[in-house]
């Protein structure tokens, strides 16, 4: 197998549709890749995009849906890590702080500047002096542009920004910029960019074991399509383990695992309607036990989090416990006493697992968020730890290593990193300053395709320069006889299936639209007609339909009711 044909990539017409996954997997067995990536979260997606734009032949497999793990369950901030200054992690702040602006410029449709208020109270974590100095150092390290540098506010000015903040003991506030993102859509857009440049990626395909040559070096992996249970061999010169919380499980299949290991922590977020929690300003605030969490307004909702607790349960489906929910509610009522949040006010929630590199004796909030790259005797490269914000730089470091080793082995030179100024899919605006004009124009244009202007604005804002595809689906819907959906819902669904590899209803309602988290009423309204439409498209058996419907119902239930109260 070492002499497998090493020629041009065998390409498909559309490599990112949920309909031809089997055909794609068959084609992947006929190629030999420079790089096989295990893991389809933001780290794996970033590595795929970096590698393919340098001229490498790239394959990626993900055992669940893309972004189904940590990459759809974060605080949804591309932020500079202000709290890491407290831990003197200067390099972490410096690197991820500078990456924020790059991530924003390359995808303004999935990342938005968000002014953040950091109130300080008598006896709190931050005081006026430490806040002022901390934010000034932060501005310097992260090279924050002048228009987004911090300002210091009096107590009165702080309350003017957010009247719901606790008045008792309030000394003032710091005001600085973070970047809000849709983590799952960011992952999907990066993955789509990799596919557009020639990468072969497939979801619901699990790496079962490694393939070795006579020198006990990894030359590929046996992978299983979890939809059909069929196995395939994929061969590659180098294999990267970017499996996030599953990094240790993947390494456990290799004979040469080192002593490094992960420590998993869980974080949960609660979502409230603005009618219940009318927050108008993003706030980073103290909890009663001295931790700090975020409260962020978004699309008519307010979400708050995160908790930080060690986790050793089922990492595939981390769930909210009543103790998690109560902790966050207590924190809200501590800092925003006027709102008087109760358990029944929770509209939705999500829970996620952070894969941190184990540090003995440290509490969850103290463990470093830095990333590390390990290479085993077999040649398996593992990337572990890190933050959403730093995904592009993490990918660059991994691919630098891959490039060096491939160049040495084959006397072939690859390009240097190309992603610093490379728009992700949907981000071709010609600069972030042109984004809003684009959205304004497209929202008006949407009417001619059978959409409402506000629906056009939602689509243009979310899908960026890919929005014309969705407009065409909306137009096509008017020609169909079956009127079970609306042009808007049909456009979202068909674009998701044919251009974003939606395979199951949960893919659509959680990771492509985010509706289970931020518009759960919409998800409940459309779940049955969407499932009916998908059943017809994919030709599911009655058992498959029942299974996928049950999966979605469970996600809807878990979003509202703590798992220990079900």
Walk me through what this model shows:
- With 566 residues, the protein is α+β, with helices and mostly antiparallel strands.
- The protein contains 17 helices and 18 strands.
- The protein has helices spanning 21-28, 42-53, 90-106, 128-141, 155-161, 183-196, 247-251, 322-335, 391-410, 435-445, 453-463, 467-477, 487-499, 505-512, 515-518, 520-538, 542-560; strands spanning 32-38, 58-61, 77-78, 111-121, 151-154, 170-181, 200-202, 205-212, 218-225, 231-241, 262-273, 282-286, 292-298, 301-305, 309-310, 348-357, 371-375, 381-385.
- Strands 3, 4, 5, 6, 11, 12, 13, 14, 15 and 16 form a ten-stranded mixed sheet that branches.
- Strand 8 and strand 9 (218-225) form a beta hairpin.
- The radius of gyration is 23 Å and the shape is globular.
- The termini are far apart.
- The relative contact order is 0.15.
- The model is unreliable at 1-12 (pLDDT under 50).
């Amino acid at each position: 197998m070492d002499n497998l044909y090493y020629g041009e990539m065998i390409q498909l017409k559309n490599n990112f549709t949920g309909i031809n996954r089997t055909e794609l997997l068959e084609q992947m067995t006929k190629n030999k890749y420079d790089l096989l990536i295990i893991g389809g979260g933001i780290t794996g997606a970033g590595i795929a995009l970096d590698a393919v734009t340098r001229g490498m032949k790239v394959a990626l497999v993900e055992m669940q849906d893309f972004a189904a793990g940590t990459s759809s369950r974060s605080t949804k901030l591309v932020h500079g890590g202000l709290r890491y200054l407290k831990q003197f992690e200067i390099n972490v702040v410096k690197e991820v702080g500078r990456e924020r602006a790059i991530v924003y410029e390359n995808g303004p449709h999935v990342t938005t500047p968000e002014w953040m208020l950091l109130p300080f109270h008598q006896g709190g974590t931050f005081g006026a002096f430490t806040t002022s100095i901390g934010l000034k150092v932060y501005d310097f390290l992260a090279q924050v542009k002048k228009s987004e540098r911090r300002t210091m506010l009096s107590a009165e000015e702080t309350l003017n920004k957010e009247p719901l903040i606790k008045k008792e003991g309030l000394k003032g506030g710091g005001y600085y910029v973070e970047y809000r993102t849709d983590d799952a859509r960011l992952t999907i857009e990066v993955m789509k960019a990799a596919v557009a440049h020639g990468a072969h990626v497939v979801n619901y395909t699990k790496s079962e074991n490694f393939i070795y040559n006579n020198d006990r070096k990894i030359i590929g992996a046996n992978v299983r399509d979890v939809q059909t249970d069929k196995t395939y061999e994929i061969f590659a010169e180098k294999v990267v383990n970017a499996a996030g919380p599953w990094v240790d499980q993947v390494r456990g299949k290799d004979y040469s695992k080192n002593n490094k290991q992960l420590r998993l922590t869980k974080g949960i977020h609660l979502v409230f309607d603005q009618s219940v929690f009318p927050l108008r300003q993003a706030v980073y605030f103290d909890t009663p036990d001295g931790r700090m969490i975020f409260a962020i307004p978004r699309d008519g909702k307010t979400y708050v989090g995160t908790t930080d607790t060690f986790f050793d349960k089922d990492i595939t489906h981390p769930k909210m416990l009543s103790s998690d929910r109560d902790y966050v509610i207590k924190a809200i009522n501590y800092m925003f006493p006027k709102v008087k949040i109760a358990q029944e006010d929770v509209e939705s929630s999500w829970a996620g697992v952070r894969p941190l590199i184990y540090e003995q004796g440290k509490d969850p909030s103290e463990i470093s968020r830095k990333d590390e790259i390990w290479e085993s005797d077999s040649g398996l490269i593992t990337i572990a730890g890190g933050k959403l914000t730093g995904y592009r730089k993490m990918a660059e470091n991994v691919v630098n290593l891959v490039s060096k080793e491939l160049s040495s082995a084959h006397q072939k030179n690859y390009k240097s990193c190309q992603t610093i100024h490379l728009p992700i899919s949907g981000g071709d605006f010609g600069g972030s300053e042109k984004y809003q004009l684009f959205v304004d124009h497209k929202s008006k244009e949407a009417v001619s395709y059978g959409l409402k202007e506000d629906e056009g604005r939602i689509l243009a804002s979310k899908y960026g320069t890919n929005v014309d595809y969705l407009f065409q689906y909306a137009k096509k819907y008017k020609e169909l006889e079956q009127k079970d959906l609306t042009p808007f819902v049909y456009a979202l669904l068909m674009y998701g299936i044919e251009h974003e590899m939606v395979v199951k209803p949960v893919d659509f309602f959680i990771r492509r639209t985010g509706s289970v988290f931020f518009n759960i009423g919409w998800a409940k309204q459309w779940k049955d007609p969407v499932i009916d439409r998908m059943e017809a498209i994919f030709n599911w058996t009655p058992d498959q339909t029942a299974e996928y419907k049950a999966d979605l119902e469970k996600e809807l239930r878990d979003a509202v009711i703590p798992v220990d109260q079900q």
